[in-house]
Write a structure and sequence with these properties.
The chain has 59 helices and 2 strands. The protein has about 1300 residues and is mainly α. The protein has a two-stranded antiparallel sheet.
Length: about 1300
């Protein structure tokens, strides 16, 4: 055999081992062919059709019986052996049958496992199957995906091996995703662009071409098909691996995959949802559980959610919108978790739950809100989501809304398109929104807002910032919004307010921008009408104040005004102001321009929000601090007009907010939150006026509470007993306050005024001093008229008539009860003040100093705080006078108020000048009442210590008439005050300064009912105001408008003006040589009427000559009269002394004059100061030479007249005397008055203590003559020291 294998056939034949070599060769070929080339296994069905037919029959048999994969596998082995079937082809046929019977996983998976084939072979066979469907327009059957997914799930094949057989390539998928984003952005750009009609047709043609190109359908994305199959059978592990290979949200952007993932999530969260998420009374069908053991486990606790559920939701992203039911389940689970989180008291457990909380926040940001965007008009889901979100603090919610608005829409192609479509639709709606179609437009806005509130509101707010007339229709159209949408609206408003790209001032830097004013108005209207949480907005305003920015206080002002009905304005009518001094009901009915009704709920919401977030006191303190800070932080950079507006806005908002807190907070809440006044001032550095403003309601509450306690403790109905109990309650409550205020001022202050007086002044209000009887009567009559009109109205339905009548009757009863209550209260307060008054003023130094401190620390700070406080200050002065308070000189107080208002007017803001004008008006009202009727004067002033002209050491003796200022001399004094007001007004008008002119015009308008009353003074004012109208018409329109308004009103008041001789008594004029005229500011000066009517230099000279004649006659008549009192002349600092002391005074003044001249040289660095110094020197010289011969006086007068005519700009305002001189001369005054017979009363003279600015060329003539006149006409002088100090 060895030789046969090794030797060739011919050799074998020659050796005789084989018969024939040829036959042997043929036989070998046949054997080798049979051995190597003949097929032993058949892989084509036609080659062994019987065997394959039997195989298909075995695999296709009914499997419901006892047929198992093991039995079938044995049959398959037999068929392979019997029919020589190809094992690979058999495996292919098994997969084919499995594909057809894809529901028989339990049979085929074990069969394939038992078949003992290699994983690689199985994978190649599957790969060839997928390859077969990778042709254009090819469609891979879902059964093949299922088979592949099942094999992957049971690890029969590896994903890496199969993945390479699938199309398209990953790079192709990434390119497709980028292309989709670009297309979405292009669509968005087209929607936002303004397109010309011709361009529209071109775009349509291009779109058609693109659609034709897309008609050739590319092959299926087999990777996505396999992913879907994996998700359907619950193989999350392999599905996640495939999704990681693709761009974010690319896979789930296909609806089938998103739905498959949602179904898997349903199954996983079902047990936890049934336990914790199902609302009460709700039912639901249970989903079919997955049979696969390899599927993710179902969750039983919230901790289990972090294993797979949060990850699945993260992959799902905005496409959770395909399954609203699952959306609701996730939201409810989140709601349940938040309740559990909030109720958890143990810190350790809460720390563990913090990670879950952050997961829920992430899901809300990445899944829930984007999914809501893709749900078209699903208000139920919006409300469901709000149930979850409202459990978060507003900081978390606003962060979510910010992400949603500014980032989410740019991350997904689909959301890019939705954003553009929303903006387009919003434009369509807003173009057609009017007051007439609010309802249909509101419904459209509501539908659009359910899904995309951030985009919609952003556009609406941008329109409102441009067109403020949209505010009302927009607010009315927002009634169809969901709770979530309202919360989003609040966030969008805050974001719009905080926009760093927007300037909050107009380009002129003098006014607040209109867009900010529009948003503030919208805030007030929206937050009042709809139940929106206010915490975020209030915190925003607080943060802005912390940063030293007060522009946004406009928002708080609007919100408080609309929500609480508390309106702060300085343009109140007298009737409104009177109503504001009554109770809360009277304020609501008659105190505001617009009666804002139904504010109970909205004001309660505002109060709750402030208390819950502890913002009430911080806002008050920040506003009080910022009010003064505005001047320093903004004063250097901003226009003075804007600084004043910001100051006023800050102040008005503080007042408004304080009134709201006082009227809405309970006594306990208020006392608990507002500290004592010394803590407010010393620790929080709150200005004193603001500190008392905040503390005042607290004192009132405490006094009433203590009073009620005392009444209950000792029952007694007698009025006297009630008064005593009230006084006891006041003493108990106010005693700590008296001690607290001592630390607010230096000890020297309390030498003149006691802390009790200081605290009493600052703690009382107009409600405590007087009952506005006429205001109550007016409102009661209005209600009676309304009731009568309701009865007579036949068209009104009976139900409505009954309701309206009941409402009016209830209001009527409330007003009458309130009036009665206030009347009793005022009587008690007046009794208390009557007992306290003797200990108010100590006057250890001088009465002048006492009045100075009273003005500086009490009157001036409060009279500009609010309009009601301005009235209060005037009424308080009158009350102190009426109470016959010891050491209080009423005459001196009024003189100090009226003598020089320049400083005060110049330092006021616009609103403060209105309040100051109202204060002066009330003071003038009292003075005018006394001036107009002798009986009234004698009754109210004749026997009062406030009108003493001699201050005796023994105190007030009511019976000594010689010490009192008589009626005629009081009229002289009033004329002098009017003259001083005119002089100060003309000075302010001539400065050219915007603030001076604006403020004095406002003040003059306010005091118009009582000033000017003298014809010549009115003419002087009219002349100067007319010039202001001419000068400012083109330069400063707001000043022009003010001046024109005042000019018109002044002309209408001319009929009420009287000549000077009717206003106060003047001695009859006779023709006497003017050589006897005494020169000095205490004598009768040139009449103001001559100054006002003069129009040329010749007329000026004539008027001066006449005035000299008149003054000479007055002097001679007074000296010849045997009953006349001794003459006294006013010194340059305003104090008056008898004639016998004139020379002593002159000697002392001469010695002090040199010191004063040196001082003026140093201080008079500015032209204004120098001018003032020269004027003062002239006046002093006039005072020194007053005892000279008449001839010398006449010559001096002529010289002065020549000098005055030679000047181009007359310097008219006197310089203020120093405090030391005031005090020393007051002392001399008192000394001289002790042992002497009192001189008769006469005119008062106070210098105007300001020298500021020369008169313009145009201001010559009448006004110049007025300002150079030495004093108003009066024939007598009062022995009274009246010093003017600027506070």
């Amino acid at each position: 055999m060895f030789f046969v294998q090794r030797l060739d056939p011919e050799t074998l034949e020659s050796l005789g081992l084989i018969k024939q070599a040829l036959q042997f060769n043929q036989k070998i070929v046949k054997i080798k062919t049979k051995l190597f080339y003949k097929q032993q296994k058949f892989n084509l069905l036609r080659e062994e059709n019987e065997g394959y037919a039997k195989l298909v029959t075995e695999l296709g048999q009914d499997l419901t019986g006892n047929v198992t994969s093991h039995l079938v596998l044995e049959s398959i082995k037999s068929l392979i052996g019997c029919f020589n079937l190809d094992p690979n082809r058999v495996l292919d046929i098994i997969l084919e049958v499995y594909e057809c019977r894809s529901d028989q996983d339990e049979f085929f998976i074990p069969l394939i496992k038992s078949y003992m084939c290699e994983h690689q072979t199985l994978c190649h066979i599957l790969g060839f199957k997928f390859k077969f469907h990778q042709e254009p327009n090819g469609e891979t059957p879902s059964s093949l995906y299922h088979v592949a997914a099942a094999l992957l799930q049971h690890n029969l094949i590896a994903l890496e091996d199969l993945y390479v057989h699938l199309l398209p390539q990953d790079s192709t998928i990434v390119e497709e995703h980028k292309r989709e984003i670009l297309e979405a952005k292009q669509i968005a750009r087209k929607l936002t662009m303004v397109v010309v009609p011709s361009e529209k047709t071109d775009d349509k043609e291009k779109d058609k071409e693109k659609e034709e190109e897309k008609s050739e359908k590319p092959p299926d994305n087999q990777k996505l098909g396999l992913l879907e199959a994996l998700l359907r059978i619950g193989d999350w592990q392999h599905a996640q691996s495939i999704m990681e290979q693709m761009p974010a949200y690319y896979a789930t952007s296909h609806k089938a995959i998103a739905i498959a993932l949602c179904q898997l999530l349903h199954l996983i969260v079902e047990p936890l949802y049934r336990r914790a998420g199902v609302p009460k009374g709700a039912k639901g069908s249970l989903p079919k559980p997955l049979w696969s053991r390899q599927a993710p486990p179902q969750v039983e606790t919230f901790e289990d959610l972090s294993k797979d559920v949060f990850t699945m939701l993260g992959y799902l992203g905005p496409h959770l919108s395909h399954d609203p039911i699952l959306f609701a389940k996730i939201v409810r689970l989140g709601k349940s978790f938040m309740k559990e989180y909030q109720s958890e008291s143990k810190q350790d457990a809460k720390d563990k739950m913090d990670s879950l909380l952050s997961c829920f926040l992430s899901i809300a940001d990445q899944v829930l809100l984007p999914s809501l965007t893709l749900m078209e008009c699903n208000a139920c889901m919006s409300e469901e989501l709000w149930g979850f979100f409202k459990l978060f603090p507003y900081q978390y919610r606003y962060r979510l809304y910010g992400q949603w608005k500014n980032e989410t829409y740019s991350n997904h192609p689909l959301l890019v398109k939705v954003k553009a479509q929303t903006v387009d639709r919003a434009k369509y709606i807003m173009k057609r929104l009017t007051k007439e179609n609010v309802k249909p437009s509101g419904r459209q806005i509501g539908k659009l807002s359910h899904s995309n509130p951030t985009i919609l509101f952003d556009y609406i707010l941008s329109q409102i910032q441009w067109y403020d007339n949209l505010i009302t229709p927009v607010v009315d159209s927002l009634k169809y919004l969901t709770s979530l949408n309202y919360d989003v609206l609040a966030y969008c408003i805050i974001e719009a307010l905080a926009n760093p790209e927007k300037e909050k001032m107009k380009h002129d830097d003098t006014t607040i921008s209109s867009w900010l004013q529009s948003l503030a108005s919208l805030c007030g209207a929206v937050f009042r009408k709809y139940p929106i949480e206010l915490a975020g907005l209030l915190q925003y305003v607080t943060n802005q104040l912390k940063a030293g920015k007060s522009f946004d206080l406009l928002i708080l002002k609007e919100v408080v005004q609309k929500m609480a009905g508390i309106e702060i304005t300085d343009e109140m009518t007298v009737e409104q102001l009177e109503a504001m001094t009554g109770g809360e009901q009277l304020k609501a009915e008659g105190g505001y321009f617009g009666q804002i009704r139904n504010t109970k709920k909205s004001s309660q919401r505002l109060k709750d929000s402030l208390l819950d977030h502890e913002l009430a006191l911080p806002l008050c303190l920040l506003m009080a601090q910022q009010r003064n800070g505005v001047v320093f932080s903004e004063g250097g950079e901003k226009h003075l007009k804007l600084v004043g507006k910001l100051y006023d806005q800050c102040h008005d908002t503080l007042v408004q907010f304080g009134v709201f807190l006082a009227s809405n907070l309970s006594t306990e809440d208020y006392i608990k939150r507002v500290p004592s006044v010394d803590i407010l001032c010393n620790q929080f550095h709150t200005p004193h006026d603001a500190a008392f403003f905040l503390s005042r309601p607290m004192y009132a509450h405490q006094i009433l509470s203590k009073y009620d306690e005392l009444k209950k403790a000792e029952k007694g109905n007698r009025q006297q007993q009630k008064v005593h109990k009230y006084i006891a309650a006041c003493e108990q409550v106010m005693a700590p306050v008296h001690e607290a205020v001592v630390s607010l001022h230096p000890p020297k202050v309390w030498d003149d005024i006691r802390p009790q007086f200081y605290a009493t002044f600052w703690s009382l209000t107009m409600y405590d001093l007087a009952v506005p009887q006429s205001a109550y009567d007016r409102e009661v009559n209005k209600l009676k008229t309304q009731i009568k009109a309701i009865d007579e109205n036949t068209e009104m339905p009976l139900n409505k008539k009954k309701k309206e009548k009941e409402r009016c009757t209830a209001l009527l009863d409330k007003l009458l009860e309130e009036e009665k209550k206030q009347l009793e209260h005022v009587q008690r307060v007046l009794q208390r003040l009557k007992l306290e008054k003797d200990n108010w003023l100590l006057a250890k130094s001088t009465k002048n100093e006492t009045i100075t401190k009273f003005l500086q620390l009490c009157l001036f700070p409060r009279c500009v705080f609010s309009a009601i406080d301005a009235v209060y200050c005037a009424r308080f002065v009158e009350l102190v006078h009426q109470q016959k308070t010891p050491n209080f000189c009423t005459l001196l107080c009024y003189d100090r108020v009226f003598s020089d208002i320049i400083y005060t007017v110049a330092s006021c803001t616009e609103n403060e000048s209105r309040r100051y004008g109202r204060f002066l008006c009330c003071m003038l009202e009292t003075v005018t009442r006394w001036h107009s009727d002798k009986t009234t004067y004698e009754k109210e002033c004749g026997n009062y210590p406030g009108f003493l002209t001699i201050f005796r050491a023994s105190g007030f003796d009511g019976g000594n008439k010689a010490d009192q200022l008589d009626y005629e001399n009081f009229r002289h004094v009033v004329h002098k005050w009017h003259y001083k007001l005119t002089k100060a007004s003309v000075h302010c008008l001539e400065t050219g300064e915007y603030t001076h002119i604006r403020n004095i015009l406002i003040v003059l308008t306010k005091i118009l009912p009582y000033y000017p009353k003298v014809l010549n003074l009115g003419q002087a004012l009219e002349c100067r105001v007319h010039k202001i109208c001419q000068e400012e018409k083109e330069k400063r329109p707001d000043l022009y408008a003010l001046a024109m308004g005042y000019s018109g009103q002044l002309k209408s008041r001319k009929v009420h003006m009287v000549p000077e001789n009717e206003f106060h008594y003047k001695e009859p004029v006779s023709s006497i040589n003017p050589g006897g005229l005494q020169n000095g500011p205490g004598n009768t000066g040139k009449p103001a009427a001559a100054a006002a009517s003069a129009t040329s230099k010749n007329e000026e000279g004539t008027a001066e000559d006449k005035s000299k004649d008149k003054s000479q006659v007055a002097q001679k008549t007074a000296s010849k009269n045997p009953t006349a009192v001794n003459k006294a002349s006013s010194s340059s600092n305003g104090s008056s002394t008898p004639n016998r002391y004139t020379r002593e005074k002159e000697d002392k003044e001469k010695s002090g004059k040199e010191k004063k001249e040196k001082k003026e040289k140093n201080s008079g660095s500015t032209p204004e100061a120098k001018a003032g110094g020269k004027e003062k020197q002239k006046e002093e010289k006039a005072g020194d030479n007053k005892e000279k011969t008449p001839k010398a006086d006449k010559d001096k007068r002529k010289d002065e007249k020549k000098d005055e005519k030679s000047k181009t700009d007359g310097k008219s305002t006197d310089k203020e005397s120093s405090k030391e001189r005031d005090v020393s001369k007051e002392g001399k005054q008192k000394e001289s008055s002790k042992g002497e017979k009192p001189p008769g009363p006469g005119s008062l003279k106070s210098p105007v203590p300001r020298a500021e600015g020369a008169e313009s060329e145009r201001g010559k003539g009448a006004v110049k003559k007025l300002r150079s006149a030495p004093s108003p006409g009066a024939s007598r002088v009062v022995s009274l020291s009246l010093h003017v100090r600027v506070v």
